[in-house]
Amino acid sequence: MLLDDGQGKSLRISRLEHENYRKVDQIIPIAEILPNRHFDRCPLCLASDADSLEHVPPKALGGAVMVNTCARCNNAFGSKLEADLVDWWEDALVRVEYRSPRFQGARRGPKILLRQTDNGEFVMLPDKPRTPGEVREVFEEGGEIDFTYQVIDSVRWQLAALKSAYLASCLLLGKIPETPEAERVRESLMIARDKPKNERLDPMLVPQGIRVARSQGPAARGETLLVQAWSDDHAEYAVLLSAVLLVTWPVGGWVVPVVDDKPGAAVQLGPHLADS
User: Fold this and answer.
1) pLDDT tens-digit profile of 164-195?
2) What residue ranges do the domains of the chain occupy?
3) DSSP string, 21-44
4) In sequence order, which residues have a C-beta less than 8 Å from that of residue 192 and are 6 or more positions away?
5) How many angstroms separate the CA atoms of 59 and 47, rounded?
6) Taking the model in full, what pTM does it have?
7) Alpha helices in the chain (DSSP H)
8) Which of 111, 84, 81 is nearest to 95 (CA)?
């Protein structure tokens, strides 16, 4: 993307350089996770009315409809968790308020995207069409303006990513897992679902050993894979969601991967593989 620097020069801007995927040396696909499995109950809360179409991961991150959940889970997680996941992935500043000597009180604006130029300088991109007119005037005239924003809740976006990885795990296993790890995931997700949006979530809700990484590349819509993620001679099984989110395999258990249309050896999918 090109941006005018205000002096007649164009600046090329891009997503921020994250450490997440740069720390992953190699991602080896093990098995493709296929969509369209309808379980006899909601795989999240285990209620019997699994009649709501669920995107894995969220549609805004390249997700496709892959499984049915109940309407309560689908709606609650979408509003309480997944918006934070999208904002985190986008490098967004949210709930922005502007103040300036040019106007009285605060003006609420849309989220601001953080980006950087080729030489590493940070750039903030407000959504101009939705930014209040008084604020745009101050920007355009180079006037004094301050703004505040709210930090994205890291527990919420991690749980949102965990939810997508858990649903992908159910699809790959062909059943709703009953392992201790899966029960722990469901317990955490139900607590988050039922908490009011304005209440902080306990960081302990994110199971130990779960890691989430994000990629800057374009999303591969509907592509969900079981992979081995290698970093510093250490590997772990993980779920790669639309090529933009990498989440540690969350539910334990065993799976038989299919390679070149032939079943391979069964592997145990704990959070971590042994160091090589």
Assistant:
1) 999 999 998 889 999 999 999 999 999 999 99
2) 11-89+153-268, 90-150
3) GGG--EEEEEEEPP--B--SS-TT
4) 77, 80, 81, 155, 156, 159, 201, 205
5) 24
6) 0.84
7) 71-77, 83-90, 133-141, 154-173, 180-194
8) 111
